[in-house]
Design a protein that fits this description.
373 residues, single chain, Rossmann fold, six-stranded mixed beta sheet, five-stranded parallel beta sheet, alpha/beta
Length: 373
Amino acid sequence: MGRNKAPSDNTVRILCGKAAGMCEFEGCNKRLFYDGVTLSNFNNAYVAHIVASSANGPRGDKILSPQLSDKLENLMLMCADHHKLIDTNVDEYPVDRLKAMKVAHEEKLDRICSLFTVPKTEIVRFVSPIKGTQTANIDYNLAAKAVLPNKHPASPYGIQMPIKSSYKYKSKEYWDDCINQLEYQFQNALYNPYIQLHRSNFSIFPIAPIPLIIKLGELIGDKLPCDIYQKTRVPDTWEWQSVELTNTFTIESKEYNQESESVALVISLTNEISDDRIPQIDKYRSIYKITASTLEVDCIKSISDLSAFWHTYQSVCEEILNLYGRNVGVHLFPAVPVSAAFEIGRRYMANTYPKINIYDECDGFFETLILGG
């Protein structure tokens, strides 16, 4: 039986476009329309059939061969070597394997081509030792992968913001030093005249103590367009693990000392903060507590989760403001992932909300810095 209908010139042109003029054999990617030695224009492209055009050909079929002979989904663009290879080793290169090669090659090119139309974002890696001793690095390639395909990295290295202090972690000097460094780097790396002129967009990747991430969020506020990312342990990625709402957040409040002018705000998302962990609990007029329905390190897995959290957080801030006014002392005890920490600072309204004293946990909670101070 002879060959069936040949693909039209238009079909071949579409195939060449989908393959970007490269061999679609897995791992080859050879450019087929110029000679790699002389650099002259040269057509070395072959249109290979997945199911042979003839029923008697490689991977041929009495029914499918006439049906698919001229169809785009049955065609692959290949170099001479791999065209011969697949037809002389049919058992090693069956229909399903060739289809998978075609799909992988063309989907990869679709993703690459989409980068030409998506906005650029500058990747910001913010790193500071956890509890003053535990250092960490942020892999730029993992960060770049997280922003794709919705955005494209604006530069090959991004912006690095390392902060480290030689003072003791629980000392006032440590936090004053870190805040000074952070404010300096923010002004020079993120909020400088060049950045403002070009209206740059930022993607923030932090591994740092929670109070410093909150402070970075406050500095950025609504001044700069940005997105926040957080790392998951399993899998090892900065990509959001869901697009759906996976968690909910509830608010509780208790009255303690009616004579006090201070309020405690406890945010238990990654683990439980019981009342006995809050120092001098009886000095607070009331305690507000935000709790996640699922308490775990990865309690915020999507942008929807993050949005639900900060709406809950803002509602608590509004209630405290309405009941106690701007002059009340608010003391924040957080057990939160980095994305929530960033939003706590970013959503803070300095001219509206009371100042917030932020605590960190290191062999018990201790005061670090002031939000709005």
